[in-house]
Amino acid sequence: MHANRMAYVVFYKGKHVIKRIKTLPVDVSYVSKKQNYAIVYGDAGQEQTLKKQLKNTKGFKYIGPSRLYDENLNF
Questions:
Q1: CA 66 to chain centroid
Q2: What residues are paired with 15 via a beta bridge?
Q3: CATH number of 5-69
Q4: For 22-72, how does the pLDDT look when each residue is reduced to its tens digit (9 = 90+)?
Q5: What are the structural domain ranges in the chain?
Q6: pTM, full prediction
Q7: Under DSSP, is residue 10 helix (H, G, I), strand (E, B) or coil?
Q8: Of the candidates 62, 52, 67, which has an alpha carbon nearest to the alpha carbon of residue 12?
């Protein structure tokens, strides 16, 4: 079974955004408390729904694909 997953970087302002991210259907891999970003893994086709769900969260800034993610290692 091949899972089509993607790594995303979520930039935020405030600790309450992390609580909101953990309720979403993504896996939180890393949270930087100093630089206010989180690395999450989710389905590649769910980026638009993630943006919609986080857009209404106070303190959310930006979500984008991680530049360190390698598509060749997708399993």
A1: 9
A2: none
A3: 3.30.70.80
A4: 999 899 999 999 999 999 998 888 888 888 888 888 999 988 888 776 666
A5: 5-69
A6: 0.80
A7: strand
A8: 62
3-state secondary structure at position 75 = coil
Classify residue 21 by burial, with Cβ atoms within 10 Å: 0-12, 13-18, 19+: buried
DSSP structure string for 1-35: ----EEEEEEEESSTHHHHHHHTSSSEEEEEETTT
Of the chain, the percentage scoring pLDDT greater than 90 comes to 35
* The two structure tokens encoding residue 19: 């609580």
The answer to whether 65 touches 59, Cβ cutoff 8 Å, is: no
What's the token pair of residue 23?
A: 């309720």
Cα–Cα distance measured from residue 17 to residue 4, given in angstroms and rounded to the nearest whole number: 25
